[in-house]
Design a protein that fits this description.
Blueprint (H helix, E strand, L loop, with lengths): L9 E2 L12 E14 L1 E3 L6 E6 L2 E6 L4 E5 L2 E2 L6 E5 L5 E7 L4 E9 L11 E5 L2 E5 L5 E2 L22 E5 L5 E5 L2 E8 L1 E5 L3 E6 L2 E17 L5 E3 L3 E9 L9 E4 L6 E11 L2 E9 L9 E11 L2 E2 L3 E9 L4 E2 L3 E7 L2 E7 L1 E2 L11 E7 L4 E7 L2 E6 L6 E10 L5 E10 L12 E6 L24
Parallel strand pairs: 20-27
Antiparallel strand pairs: 1-2, 2-19, 3-4, 4-5, 5-6, 7-8, 8-9, 9-10, 10-11, 11-12, 12-13, 14-15, 15-16, 17-18, 18-19, 19-21, 21-24, 22-25, 23-24, 25-26, 25-27, 28-31, 29-30, 30-34, 32-35, 33-34, 35-36, 36-37
């Protein structure tokens, strides 16, 4: 089969957990603020982020909501208020509260280069006098307010970060969260980390990343059904349901170049919050007829960013019996050796199936041999000697990309008694041995050489 070619709170997905066919929990990285700003800072003691872009300053809440913008100079927050001053002047235009509420004030000037609130008031100059402005923007004369002799500054909160940086040899930085990989190395700088927020730079642009530790997903391989491999690959499906806050139309699955899963991009569908693909799954070379767990690494792409690999898992088995070797025929002594013909039969070919190519190998217990193909399904093998009375021979039929089929035979030589007048080399009996759990098996690997190999 032909391989398939492979508001401002925007969320992208990365999964660092083991997926199963039932809904699973995950930790999800989210862009709280997209990396589109020239700089970003988190003022100490406030719950806002401040982003700068030329003469424009933007304020965001910790959850990424845009609180307001200004082209005036935004001074530092004091007592949860930040005063704005017209650029290039000392004229105060207003102030932001930490919740984003903006209060405009009547024209006034900065008093003694101190554009900050203190003890609940902002001292301003208006004409030759000075006044006090409260948090609502109301002006008060000096004798109308009672100022405390001393105001104790509130403590600056401390954060116990759960982030860990993971630098890479190329200088990029990734993030781990709760000791699990959250983002592969892709950042050029991580400016500062908080409990569940990190300010990061990609190129010359800054953004803020958060973590959702409560997200659930529903990944499914092959519709949740067992997968039957009849050949080296099988057509199947993969799908995953993503949280409601994600734009499912922008989510794409991505597989590594060397993946045993190939996605058909043209088959991608989106139904509500579920993304589905048709795929081709390669048969694991170690798959047995009694089945095994399957795992195909996949990552996800959201808003052009790709994140850690995760395995889509399921259960599958190999439908054996495509080939059989029932006997070794036309046996005869040739010099000091013994030759026989191997007849390979192919079964279970479905209508429309092509005849898949295969190879035949011989494995023995230190018996040198030669093997020659004499027809599409027949091989002639010669054992150069039969030094033992009982000889084990394994015929291995190997189809590319599939587990090998092994057929054990025992070749027994009944030699004439030394006192006998018979001059023959003896009588040979070939018996196909039943395959049981007790049957010794040769070591078989995908890259097995075609030379004699010792049995286990």
């Amino acid at each position: 089969m032909k391989r398939f070619q492979s508001s401002l709170s925007v969320v992208f997905l990365l999964l660092s957990f083991f997926l199963s066919p039932s809904p699973a929990g995950a930790q999800v990285a989210r862009w709280m603020i997209l990396p589109v700003h020239q700089s970003v800072e988190k003022p100490a003691g406030t719950d806002v982020f401040i982003c700068h872009d030329g003469d424009t300053t933007s304020l965001y809440s910790l959850d990424g909501q845009l609180l307001g913008t200004t082209t005036d100079v935004l001074n530092d927050f004091q007592e949860d208020k930040a005063v704005t001053v017209r650029r290039g002047t000392q004229t105060i235009t207003g102030f932001f509260h930490a919740d984003g509420h903006y209060v405009s004030v009547k024209p006034c000037q900065v008093y003694r280069d101190y554009p900050f609130f203190s003890a609940g008031y902002l001292i301003v100059q208006q004409g030759k006098g000075y006044f006090y402005i409260d948090g609502n923007g109301k002006f008060w004369k000096q004798g109308d307010v009672n100022l405390p002799a001393r105001v104790k500054a509130p403590p600056i909160p401390t954060y116990v970060t759960k982030f860990h940086l993971t630098p890479s040899p190329d200088g990029k930085i990734g993030l781990m969260y709760n000791e699990k990989e959250l983002v592969r190395p892709m950042f050029d700088e991580v400016k500062r980390t908080m409990t569940e927020l990190a300010m990061v730079r990609i190129g010359n642009r800054w953004g803020v990343m958060g973590v959702d530790s409560t997200a659930t997903f529903a990944p499914v391989l092959n519709g949740g059904d067992t997968i039957c491999f009849r050949h080296q690959s099988v057509l199947s499906t993969v799908s995953i349901a993503v949280p409601d806050y994600m734009d499912a139309s922008k989510v794409r699955l991505v597989v590594p170049e060397d993946s045993k899963m190939q996605l058909d991009e043209q088959s991608r569908t989106v139904n509500d919050q579920t993304i589905s693909y048709t795929c081709e799954l390669a048969l694991p070379i170690t798959m047995l007829s009694d089945g095994a767990e399957l795992s195909y690494p996949v990552s996800m792409d959201y808003n052009g960013l790709t994140f850690p690999l995760l395995p889509f898992t399921g259960w599958g088995y190999y439908e054996g019996g495509r080939f059989s070797v029932d006997d070794l025929s036309d046996g005869a002594f040739e010099g000091n050796g013994y030759a026989f013909t191997i007849n390979v039969k192919e079964h279970n070919r479905q209508p429309g199936d092509e005849a898949y190519p295969y190879e035949v190998e011989i494995m023995t217990s230190d018996l040198p041999y030669t093997l020659k193909k004499i027809s599409p399904s027949k091989y002639r093998c010669k054992l150069n000697s039969l030094a033992k009375d009982n000889n084990n021979v394994y015929v291995v039929v190997r189809e590319d990309g599939c587990p090998p089929a092994v057929f054990p035979f025992e070749i027994t030589v009944k030699r004439p008694a030394q006192s006998s007048s018979s001059k023959g080399q003896g009588q040979v009996t070939i018996r196909k041995k039943p395959v049981t759990p007790q049957t010794p098996k040769p070591v078989i690997k995908p890259t097995e050489p075609k030379k004699p190999i010792k049995l286990l």
